[in-house]
Amino acid sequence: MRTSPPSVEAHGRAETRGPAATPATPATAGGPDLFGVYVHVPFCARRCDYCAFATWTGRDHLMESYAEACAAEVVAARGAESLGPASSVFFGGGTPSRLPTTLLARILGEIERAPDAEVTVECNQEDAGAARFAAWRAAGVTRVSFGVQSMAPHVLAGLGRVHDPDAVARACAAAADAGFAEVSVDLIFGGAGESDEDWRRTLEAVLALPGAPAHVSAYALTVEPGTPLARDRARHPDEDALARRYELADAVLGAAGFEWYEVSNWARPGHECRHNRLYWAQGDYRGIGCAAHSHRVGHRWWNVRTPERYVAALAEGRSPAAGEERLDDDQRAFEALALALRTRTGIPAAHVPEDPALDGLVERAGGRATLTRRGRLLADEVTTRLVVAPILPA
Q1: Within 13 Å of residue 106, how many CA atoms lie on the same side as its CB?
Q2: Is 98 part of any domain?
Q3: What does the buried/exposed string (b/e) look like for 85-102 if buried means 16 or more CB atoms within 10 Å of the residue's CB?
């Protein structure tokens, strides 16, 4: 699962064409009453070579003041923004599992939640244990997402990861023993030294984990500027290999009963991540913590990037917001289409032109258009050709 809301810029932006648009409402999240809260936990023991997120090492001394600042931001937002109950809460990072359980519970306790709210915490397998999981369950956590990346030691080394693959099985067993029915595994394909067979074995190993995780996110390795990976061209992924690995993931997971519901996410039916789907439906969410992004009806804003500045702002009673943007109706409509196109539900077919360049990339049925497996590999190409027009009934 993603650690932060998706940005359409990552998938390509096209000028809108056709008549003036109205904001789209893709049928991927279940309804307009859904509202999410994302809590960013920026602390890490070690920074991965590919990571460009707002994360820091050597800042653990800030954990208590940071948690209090997050709690204060929630309280302030409840009063000033009339936040409704959250249908989903997601603790991402960084490494949320590095946060002491009492501090995570302190933040979560301030977030008003719907009775059946989904609450996810990203977890490193090194941090997994019965006591931690029991405390999370008592606090209201319902879902655990493990950052596995690979089950091949040499591939992990090429990614700058240090965990032992055997720890993954122990972590999943501990989560199952603690009563977590919803467990997700995050993977990255295309790392240095990885073969197609290495990737197949990783997928098969994940499917055989204790507790039978019912959700898998698999992302192509991306070279982000300024990272150690970016400076080492020998470790850059091969585009053809990435395409093969994606197709292999879709085939192996599909054969095991998983269905893709977004380009990089597969789940057994009924086990999709509600918070993830909220993002792809262009839903409203409130970001808490440094560098966290928020969205409400086309208004986006984001917090200061560093934990020190964030803590200082809340301690002084100031807003931690660092910037904002407001999307007009055309921008919102295009973005809604671009995001929904990446889901299994797709978009109204009228928004995808009859273009020979899209042959084999899009399937049309029942008045809707969805990406084929090949189309998912070329989602950006399809997105640049979308026609933004008045939304037709779903």
Answers
A1: 16
A2: yes
A3: ebbbbbbbbbbbbbbebe
Quick one: pLDDT at residue 150?
97
What is the pLDDT, as a whole number, of residue 385? 95
β strands within the chain, DSSP E: 35-41, 86-93, 113-123, 143-149, 182-189, 215-220, 259-262, 265-267, 284-288, 293-296, 299-303, 321-326, 347-348, 362-365, 368-371
What lies within 8 Å, CB to CB, of 179 at 6+ separation is 137
Of the chain, the end-to-end C-alpha distance in Å amounts to: 27
The CATH number of whichever domain residue 76 belongs to comes to: 3.20.20.70
Q: Is residue 17 part of a domain?
A: no
- Structure-block tokens of residue 170: 């122990």
Determine, yes or no, domain membership for 387.
no
* CA atoms of 132 and 134, how far apart (whole Å): 5
Supply the pTM of this predicted model.
0.91
- Decide: 335 and 8 in contact? Cβ < 8 Å: yes
Residue 112 lies in a domain: yes
The reported pLDDT for the residue numbered 221 is: 97
pLDDT for position 238: 95
**Amino acid of residue 22:** T
Enclosing domain of residue 247: 23-280
The residue behind tokens 């990346």 is: 149
State the CB neighbour count (10 A cutoff) for residue 82.
7
CB contact at 8 A, 160 and 228? yes
Q: What is the pLDDT, as a whole number, of residue 32? A: 53
Please name the amino acid found at residue 89.
V
Low-confidence ranges of the chain (pLDDT < 70): 1-32, 389-394
Mean of per-residue pLDDT scores for the chain: 90
Please give the pLDDT value at position 5: 46
Measure the CA–CA gap between 268 and 271, rounded to whole angstroms. Answer: 6
Q: How many domains does the chain have?
A: 1
Query: How many other C-beta atoms are found inside a 10 Å radius of the C-beta of residue 269?
Result: 10
